[in-house]
Amino acid sequence: MGPIQAVVCKRLGDPKSTPPTPELVVESTSLPSKLGPNEIRIRVAAASINFADVLQLQGLYQDKPSLPFVPGNEVRAPNT
């Protein structure tokens, strides 16, 4: 597998500012060569950002991943 591109959140947005802009950066990275025992890899054709992701980027969602993280909870695999 070659390099992939991902949108990475480096800093959460401040919900008190208008607009509450997080620091998002497009980065090239490599996929790990080995998966963990409970992990799978899928090919992603499209990804979306939904309301839960927006809250997460502001630090307001109940799930708070450590920085940096790749936002997105919904993906579409290619049609086969």
Shape: elongated
The count of strands amounts to 4
Q: Into which percentage range does the β-strand content fall? A: 25-35%
Instruction: State the helical fraction.
Output: under 10%
Alpha plus pi helix count: 1
Terminal Cα span: 19 Å
Show the helix and strand layout.
Blueprint: E1 4-11, E2 23-29, E3 46-48, H1 51-57, E4 74-76
Antiparallel strand pairs: 1-2, 3-4
Please characterize this protein's 3D structure.
The two termini are 19 Å apart. Helices cover 9% and strands 26% of the residues. The longest helix is centred in the last third of the chain and has 7 residues, at 51-57. The strands form 2 sheets. Strands 1-2 form a two-stranded antiparallel sheet. The model has no long low-confidence stretch (mean pLDDT 87). It is mainly β and 80 residues long.
Summary of the model, kept short:
This protein is mainly beta and 80 residues long.
